[in-house]
Amino acid sequence: MPDRAPQPVDRQLPTEESRDLIALVRDIIQREIAPRAAGEEDSGHFPREVFSLLSESGLLGLPYDSAYGGGDQPYEVYLQVLEELAAARLTVGLGVSVHSLACHALAGYGSKEQQAEHLPAMLGGGLLGAYCLSEPASGSDAASLRTKAVRDGDDWVITGTKSWITHGGIADFYTVLARSGGEGARGITAFLVPGDAAGLNAAAPEKKMGMKGSPTAQLHFDGVRVPDARRIGEEGQGFAIALSALDSGRLGIAACAIGLAQAALDEAVAYATGRQQFGRPIADFQGLRFMLADMATRIEAGRALYLAAARLRDAGRPFSRQAAMAKLFCTDAAMSVTVDAVQVLGGYGYTLDFPVERYMREAKVLQIVEGTNQIQRMVIARHLAGPETR
């Protein structure tokens, strides 16, 4: 089959600076990420050195204030960087999204003193973050979390277990939601916990269907002491902080999903235009041509949807409903496109010789993380019809 290289996505970017930024990202991908992606995913290697390079290049704090080491980039640009990274390797794209999610609470709700002390290292100092909301018995029903934070003088003592933590056990800091008061959403407070805190231990990483290079683990908090100076926001404000972070984080997942889908489409087109059957390329057959057309249309629609939501966010307008829609549509599109990519490649698509089987396995988790797609439908419906009656 001829070597048919995929064409880069033709992006509509707002400034010359953002165009240069995408060019930088593509250069790093070509040199440092794409050549090793398949082998490292297969072996389960987490590319910490890549995240160090991204930090040095100013790519781990893009949507945050430059006064603290961020990039001052609008979400419209940041998400397109995520898409590029995820197309090269989802472990990297999703990892950057999770890191940004972990920085959100402090950047949005921390005091000026807290921000000045911690954000420069978090945004551009080589640190890697993780976000701790889910627990073994509270996933979709996050407001029922049981991890406790008990005040002891000038400290808080945190005890409990968090689960499904991306970067669990390797992160340098964790944004942790814990119950400091009564039942329900109003009893939850946010904390910034160092990764090396005494009493904080990670379980063995989960054995997953995909994204084997990205560690996901339970975290056990056994009387972890955190100074009150590391409490983020007011006592009892944690759940509101968490929901705010998830609105932005869902856009990150949407962008990663479209990047993954684009990679699958590129592979499918390259194969279909090169593979000969019945004396001509299989891309000549209408049934397959229509499949490719539908895949491309889903990707373009998803990209437009997440960018529209990002522009609302950048304008300071409400975007929660649109973020849920983008996460729902884009991750469903990624699942559909990657399944179709395997079908286009036929038997070869089911082998490890081509990356589409990995893309299909990776796409599935995007329909689950940061709120399942069933939860996204609930969020959208509440915006349309109001809260459910009980």
What would your notes on this structure say?
With 390 residues, the protein is α+β, with helices and mostly antiparallel strands. It is 51% helix and 14% strand. The chain has 10 helices and 10 strands. It has helices spanning 16-43, 48-56, 75-88, 90-109, 112-124, 238-274, 286-314, 320-345, 356-366, 373-385, and strands at residues 129-132, 148-152, 155-166, 173-179, 188-194, 200-202, 216-227, 231-232, 276-277, 280-281. The protein has a 4-stranded mixed sheet with strand order 1-4-5-8. It has a 4-stranded antiparallel sheet with strand order 2-3-7-6, with no helix packed on it. Helix 6 (238-274) runs antiparallel to helix 7 (286-314) and helix 8 packs antiparallel against helix 10. The model has no long low-confidence stretch (mean pLDDT 96).
